[in-house]
Design goal:
This protein is α+β, with helices and mostly antiparallel strands and 1108 residues long. It is 39% helix and 18% strand. The chain starts with a strand and ends with a strand. The longest helix is centred in the last third of the chain and has 48 residues. Strands 1, 2, 3, 4, 5, 6, 7 and 8 form an eight-stranded antiparallel β-sheet that branches. The chain has an eight-stranded mixed β-sheet with strand order 27-31-30-29-28-32-33-34. Pfam families: PEP-utilizers (PF00391), PPDK_N (PF01326).
Length: 1108
C-alpha cells in the first residue's frame, strides 16, 4: 500500500488545505479525507524538520493513525533558480495502524531571506542547427561551406558534414580549430544519379553482393556531371585560393551519409575515406569512390541488418588536412560502460587513422572527472596512462596519399604532454556541454593547437546481460505475500473459479512455454485486462487497467496471481475463500489470509456486495449477446485490407485492437455459466467444498463424459474422417501421398474432389486452430495447411481412424454408475440439470474457439505487417517483428530505431532458453526457475504423487513421456501419454493413445474433454508427472525394460504395486547369461500403476532389484 498526504497552510491568510490518496497494491486509488495534521505546531521548527510527529486521516471509510520518525541526514535544496523556496526531504519510518513502513517526508517553505539569486542567462549555449526554413531554401545547393549555417543540417549534407559545420560554428568558444572545407550535398549525389543509366537493385539476398558490385562499378565509372564539377572547383578556390594553390594542397575526402553517426548506429567504417588527396582530378575520383561506397555490400548489409533504408543519398566532405604531430580519439565517457566519471583518450604520433583503423597500438590515457562537478575543467585529474607499442604511425606522403613510418625512437614515450592531455579533456567537456551528450571526438594536435576532425555521439554497446533479457518483461510485484501459480488447477466452481478455469486454458493449453514480446503485448495484455474487467464488474476493482496485475509474467511465462483474482472474495456474494482454494489448489492456503486480501484490494460490505452480485448477472447477460454478435461478424472481419504500406497497416491494427480485446473480454466472461452450473452439480454430489474428495471428482468426470456437442472433440473426429477417406483411395496412391512433401499435398488432394471438399470444410471450421494457437508467431492450419497435412499423415500412418466409438450412456445409467449414492430427490434434480451442464461445457468451448478465431484474424494481419516491414527494408527479416512489442513496432515505423532491431535480435536468441525454463506450480512472491539437476535429485526417492481423475476406464500400457509436440512422433498405439498439458495440436494423437496423464488441467480442460469423448482413461493435475516418470524411464534406459503404467478405476488410488507375478519370468532364478538373467542382474524393473478416480488418489514409484 502507498500513502500520500499533503497539507498546505498560509497563516493568517488561508485555512489549511489537504489532499492525498491511498493506493492499494492492486492499483486502486482512494482519496483521503479528514486529515488531522497541525502545521502550526511545527512553525518553530521550520528551519529544521521535526524528528517525529503524528497525524491521522480517513480513506475508503477506514481511519488510519500515523506516527512518523525521521532518520539520517536532512538535505536541503531550492525548487527554483532564484532560491525563493526551500525544500527539505528526509527518509522517514512510519507506523500506520501498527504496520511498519518507510517513505519520504518533504517540508516546503518560503526562503526567509527572500530571493537570493537573480536569474542569469545560460552560460553555455547549445550547438546551433540550421532552422528548417533556412535548410529548405538550400535544398538545391550543390556545395555548402562549413561556415554556412545551413551546412549544420544533416538533411542537406549528411551526418559527418553537419557535425563539422557545427564544430566550425563553436570553435571560437571551445579554444580549438576545424580544418577548413566544404560539403557536397545530398542533392549533388541525386544529380549525379540522374546521369547514370543503370543502378542495380535486388530483393534476393543471395544476389545482393553481385547487385552491390554492379552499383559500385556504375557509379565509379560514370563521369561527374558538369554542374557538380563546376561547383566543386568553385568551392575549392573558396577554401584555398587560386587553382594552383589547391592543386598542391593535401585533402581528406570523406563520405557523409544521411543518418550516420547517430546514437544508435554509427555506420563507422562502413563507407569510404580517402586521405592525402592531391590534385583536382584525384579529388573528383575520390568523390566518386565516396558516392559508390554507400552501395558497397558491407554498407548495404549493415543498414539492412539495422533496419535502415537501403536506398540512401550520401554527401561528401572535402577538407584540408593538417600535418598532425599526434592524433587520435577521445571519449568523454567510458565507451564500454557509459560511465561519465572518466574521459578516455587514445593517441598516436602522426595521423589519427592509425588509431581509428586499429593498425597500431596507441597510448591509452584516462582523465578522472569530479563526480560532484563533472563539467568543471579545474577539477580534472590525470588518471592511468598506458603507453602503447606505437611501432608505426601514419603521415602524409609528399606526392599525395599517406605512408607508414616507424616510431622506434619515440615508441616508449607518451605522445602527448600532461598539459595537452588536460587541454584535450577540457575540450571534451566543453563539447559535451554544448552537444548535451557524451561525445566521441577525433582530433589532431599541431604545434599546441587542437584541431577537431569529427564529433559524434558515443555509440555504447548494449550492456544488457543474458539475465537482463531473460527477465526484461518480468512483471513487478506489489506486495510480499503474492501467491502465483502456473495453473495447477484441479476444478473450478463459483463466481471466481470459472474465470480461473478459462485462465488456465488460455495460459497452459493455448500458450505453453515462453511467449514472444508481440504476444505478451497483445494476447497476454488482453487476457489480463479481461480478468480485470470481470473483477471490476463484481466490485473487486475500481477500474480495469492495462497494467500486468492478474496475469503476471516471469521470463515470458504466464502465471495467475492468486491475491489479485482472490480479491473477489472481499467484494462479491457467493465467493468463498475456502471454496476458491479447494477448487483451485486442491487444498487450503492458510498463508493467504482474508486480511491480506482486504489490505490488497479493500473490502465491500453490506448492500455493496449485493449490488456487485447484480452487476455480475448483468455482465453475463451482456457477454452472451456480445459473443453472439461477434460470432456473426468474425467470418467477414478483416484488418487493413486496403493498407499498402507497413505504416498504414500498423495504424489499422492499432485502431482495431480494441475489437480484439473486446472479443477476449466477453468470451471469457461468457464462459462463466459453465462454471456456475458445475458448482451446482458438485454441491449436489459432495455438499460443502471442504468435504469434496477424489470420489466426488470421479463422479463429476463420469457425468461429464457424455458431453457430445463439444467443439474441441470435433477436431480429431473430423481429421479421422478425412484420414479414412484418404486411406480408401488405394494403397499405392496412399503411399505416394505419404511420401509427397507436406507443402505439395494440398495440390495432390485436389485430384480427389470429395476429399478436397472435406479438407476445405475442415479448414473453414477449424482452420484457425493450431499448436500454441494464441502465440502470434505460430501460423494456423488455414494459413499454413502443411501443418494440418502433417497431422493428417500421422493419422493415416498409425491408422488412428480405426478407433472404436465410445459407449453412449443414458442419464439413468450414468447415475447408477456413480460411486456416490444419491437419494431419489437429488437424482431427479441431476436428471434435470445434466443436459444444461453439458450445454454449458459446449458453450465454454464455443467461446474459446470464438476468441481464437479472432486471434487468427490479427495473426494474419501481423504476418502481412512483418512481410511489409521486410520489403520496405525496416527489418532484416519478417520473423524479427514478433520480438518487438506492438508499441515498439510503431516506434520503429516512426524512428527507424536501429537499437530496437538489435534488441529484437537478442530477444530472439534468448527465447529458446526462456522456453526451456521450468517453474514450481505454486510460488510465494516472485517465481524462480527450478534447477533441473536439483529437481532430478529431489525426485529420485519420490514415492507418491497426487492428481485428479477426469475420465474413467482401465488400461495397462507403456509410458510415453513427451515434453513437446515436436517430440510426439515417438507415440505408438496403446501408449499412455504423459505430458504437461494438451491443446488442439495434440488432437490427432488421441485416437492412438490408451491413456493420458497431464501435470496441469481440470475437469473441462482440453485433455479431459477429448479423453472423455474417446473413452480414454485420464488423470490430470499430477504434479511433476513428466519429471518423475521420465526419471523412471531414464533409470531404465541402460537395460532392455519398459516403464509401464496401469490406469485403472478399480481402486480409488494411483499406486505402484510390486511387480505383478504374471509379468515375472518363469521360475524364480532364471539362468545366468540369458536375456532375462542379464536384465535382472544389471538393472531395475520399474512399474508405475495408476488407478484413477476415487479416495487416496496417488502414485507410488517402486524399484525392484535382482532376484535374491
Amino acid at each position: 500500500m502507498c500513502i500520500q498526504v499533503a497539507v498546505f497552510s498560509q497563516p493568517k491568510a488561508l485555512a489549511p488545505a489537504t489532499r492525498g490518496y491511498v493506493v492499494y497494491p492492486n492499483g486502486d486509488v482512494s482519496s483521503v479525507t479528514d486529515v488531522e495534521m497541525h502545521l502550526g505546531e511545527m512553525e518553530d521548527l521550520i528551519e529544521e524538520p521535526p524528528e517525529s510527529w503524528s497525524f491521522s486521516f480517513t480513506a475508503d471509510g477506514k481511519t488510519y493513525k500515523v506516527t512518523a520518525k525521521t532518520r539520517g541526514n536532512t538535505p536541503m535544496w531550492y525548487d527554483s533558480q532564484d532560491q525563493r523556496n526551500e525544500v527539505y526531504e528526509v527518509f522517514t519510518d512510519f507506523n500506520v495502524n501498527s504496520l511498519f513502513g518507510q517513505g519520504v517526508s518533504e517540508f516546503f517553505h518560503r526562503n526567509s531571506r527572500g530571493i537570493a539569486v537573480e536569474d542569469t542567462p545560460p552560460e553555455c549555449p547549445i550547438v546551433p542547427e540550421a532552422p528548417t526554413d533556412l535548410a529548405e531554401t538550400k535544398e538545391n545547393e550543390i556545395t555548402l561551406q562549413f561556415s554556412d549555417l545551413a551546412c549544420t543540417a544533416s538533411s542537406l549534407v549528411g551526418g559527418k558534414g553537419a557535425q563539422l559545420a557545427q564544430l566550425t560554428q563553436i570553435k571560437d568558444f571551445v579554444n580549438a580549430q576545424v580544418p577548413p572545407g566544404f560539403c557536397l550535398t545530398l542533392y549533388s549525389f541525386q544529380l549525379q544519379l540522374q546521369n547514370i543509366l543503370f543502378v542495380s537493385a535486388s530483393s534476393d539476398l543471395s544476389s545482393l553482393g553481385r547487385a552491390c558490385e554492379k552499383a559500385v562499378q556504375h557509379i565509379t565509372e560514370a563521369d561527374i556531371c558538369e554542374e557538380v564539377q563546376t561547383a566543386i572547383l568553385k568551392s575549392l578556390k573558396q577554401v584555398e585560393g587560386p587553382e594552383e594553390d589547391f592543386q598542391e594542397s593535401h585533402w581528406a575526402v570523406r563520405s557523409s551519409a544521411a543518418g550516420e553517426d547517430g546514437t544508435e548506429a554509427s555506420s563507422a567504417g562502413q563507407m569510404e575515406t580517402i586521405l592525402g588527396v592531391v590534385g583536382y582530378e584525384k579529388i573528383l575520383n575520390a568523390v566518386k569512390r565516396c558516392w559508390a561506397s554507400v552501395y558497397a555490400h558491407q554498407a548495404v548489409e549493415y543498414r539492412r541488418q539495422h533496419g535502415q533504408p537501403i536506398r540512401v543519398l550520401v554527401g561528401v566532405v572535402i577538407q584540408q588536412m593538417v600535418p598532425a604531430e599526434a592524433a587520435g580519439v577521445m571519449f568523454t565517457a567510458d565507451p564500454v560502460s557509459g560511465s561519465n566519471s572518466v574521459i578516455v583518450v587514445n593517441a598516436n604520433f602522426g595521423l589519427g587513422e592509425s588509431v581509428v583503423s586499429g593498425s597500431s597500438d596507441p597510448d591509452t590515457i584516462h582523465v578522472i572527472r569530479d563526480p560532484e562537478d563533472l563539467h568543471n575543467p579545474d577539477k580534472l585529474k590525470l588518471g592511468s596512462v598506458t603507453v602503447g607499442e606505437k611501432r608505426t604511425c601514419l603521415i602524409e606522403a609528399e606526392n599525395g596519399g599517406i605512408k607508414e613510418e616507424t616510431t622506434a625512437e619515440r615508441a616508449s614515450s607518451v605522445c602527448l604532454s600532461e598539459e595537452m592531455i588536460l587541454k584535450l579533456a577540457t575540450l571534451g567537456i566543453e563539447l559535451e556541454k554544448r552537444f548535451g551528450s557524451s561525445r566521441d571526438v577525433e582530433w589532431a594536435v599541431v604545434r599546441s593547437n587542437i584541431f577537431m576532425l569529427q564529433c559524434r555521439p558515443i555509440t555504447v554497446a548494449e550492456s544488457d546481460t543474458e539475465y537482463d533479457f531473460l527477465h526484461e518483461f518480468d512483471s513487478p510485484l506489489t506486495c510480499d505475500y503474492q501467491w502465483m501459480t502456473t495453473s495447477n488447477i484441479r476444478f473450478f466452481f463459483g463466481i471466481l473459479c470459472f474465470v480461473l478455469l478459462l485462465m488456465y486454458c488460455l495460459t497452459s493449453e493455448m500458450m505453453p512455454g515462453a511467449l514472444t514480446p508481440l504476444t505478451l503485448s497483445t494476447f497476454a495484455t488482453s487476457i489480463d485486462y479481461s480478468l480485470q474487467v470481470f473483477l471490476y464488474h463484481v466490485g473487486a476493482r475500481q477500474r480495469p487497467t492495462h497494467l500486468s496485475k492478474c496475469l503476471p509474467n516471469i521470463c515470458n511465462h504466464l502465471f495467475i496471481a492468486l491475491i489479485d483474482v482472490g480479491s473477489v472474495v472481499s467484494h462479491a456474494m457467493m465467493a468463498n475463500k475456502d471454496m476458491m482454494e479447494i477448487s483451485l489448489l486442491g487444498s487450503f492456503l492458510p498463508e493467504m489470509t482474508l486480511q491480506q486480501l482486504e489490505d490488497y484490494a479493500g473490502k465491500s460490505v453490506g448492500f455493496r456486495r449485493l449490488h456487485n452480485f447484480v452487476n455480475m448477472l448483468r455482465m453475463w447477460s451482456k457477454a452472451q449477446s456480445t459473443c453472439t454478435a461477434w460470432e456473426k461478424k468474425i467470418p467477414s472481419y478483416t484488418v487493413g485490407p486496403e493498407a499498402q504500406t507497413a505504416l498504414e497497416l500498423y495504424k489499422c491494427i492499432d485502431q482495431q485492437l480494441v475489437d480484439y480485446e473486446t472479443v477476449w473480454v466477453w468470451s471469457l466472461i461468457n464462459s462463466g455459466r459453465s462454471g456456475n452450473m458445475a458448482t451446482v452439480i458438485m454441491s449436489i454430489i459432495g455438499g460443502d467444498a471442504t468435504g469434496w474428495t477424489t470420489q466426488h471428482y470421479g463422479d463429476m468426470a463420469l457425468l461429464l463424459s457424455q458431453c457430445n456437442d463439444v467443439y474441441s472433440a470435433e477436431v480429431p473426429h473430423a481429421i479421422e474422417n478425412i484420414a479414412r477417406a484418404v486411406a480408401e483411395i488405394g494403397q499405392e496412391e496412399v503411399e505416394t501421398f505419404l511420401l509427397t512433401p507436406d507443402e505439395d499435398c494440398m495440390e495432390a488432394l485436389s485430384s480427389h474432389p470429395k476429399i478436397m471438399k472435406m479438407v476445405e470444410a475442415f479448414l473453414a471450421r477449424h482452420g484457425h486452430r493450431c499448436l500454441r494457437e494464441s502465440e502470434m508467431r505460430e501460423k494456423s492450419w488455414r494459413s499454413a495447411p502443411e501443418k494440418f497435412i502433417s497431422v493428417l499423415k500421422l493419422m493415416i500412418k498409425t491408422k488412428g481412424y480405426e478407433k472404436n466409438e465410445k459407449q453412449q450412456l443414458s442419464i439413468s445409467e450414468l447415475l447408477d454408475k456413480m460411486e456416490t449414492k444419491l437419494p431419489f430427490l437429488k437424482r431427479q434434480i441431476l436428471k434435470f440439470l445434466l443436459p444444461k451442464a453439458w450445454k454449458a461445457v459446449g458453450d465454454r468451448e464455443w467461446g474459446k474457439s470464438l476468441s481464437v478465431q479472432m486471434n487468427d484474424v490479427f495473426k494474419l494481419a501481423y504476418q502481412r505487417l512483418g512481410s511489409l516491414l521486410q520489403q520496405e527494408g525496416r527489418l532484416p527479416d519478417a520473423d524479427l517483428m514478433y520480438f518487438l512489442t506492438h508499441l515498439e513496432i510503431g516506434n520503429l515505423l516512426r524512428t527507424g530505431s536501429a537499437r530496437l532491431i538489435i534488441k529484437a535480435q537478442k530477444r530472439r536468441k534468448i527465447l529458446a532458453k526462456q522456453t526451456s525454463l521450468k517453474f514450481e506450480q505454486m510460488n510465494k512472491s516472485r517465481p524462480f526457475p527450478t534447477d533441473p539437476y536439483l529437481k532430478h535429485a529431489e525426485i529420485s526417492d519420490v514415492e507418491c504423487l497426487t492428481g485428479m481423475p477426469v475420465s474413467q476406464g482401465q488400461i495397462t500400457g507403456p509410458a510415453q513421456v513427451v515434453h513437446s509436440l515436436e517430440g510426439a512422433s515417438v507415440i505408438t498405439p496403446g501408449d499412455i501419454l504423459v505430458v504437461k498439458s494438451t491443446d488442439v495440436g495434440w488432437s490427432p494423437y488421441f485416437p492412438l493413445i490408451g491413456g493420458l496423464v497431464t501435470e496441469l488441467g481440470g475437469l473441462i480442460s482440453h485433455g479431459a474433454v477429448v479423453a472423455r469423448e474417446y473413452g480414454i482413461p485420464c488423470v490430470v493435475n499430477v504434479n511433476k508427472a513428466t519429471s518423475i516418470i521420465q526419471s523412471a524411464v531414464l533409470r531404465s534406459t541402460y537395460v532392455d525394460i519398459e516403464t509401464t503404467l496401469l490406469i485403472s478405476t478399480n481402486r480409488g488410488s494411483v499406486i505402484v504395486d510390486p511387480l505383478p507375478s504374471d509379468l515375472q519370468g518363469p521360475g524364480s532364478s532364471p539362468a545366468a547369461g540369458t536375456s532375462v538373467g542379464l536384465f535382472l542382474e544389471t538393472g531395475f524393473i520399474i512399474f508405475i500403476i495408476f488407478s484413477i478416480c476415487f479416495p487416496d488418489f496417488h502414485v507410488r514409484v517402486v524399484r525392484h532389484g535382482a532376484y535374491a
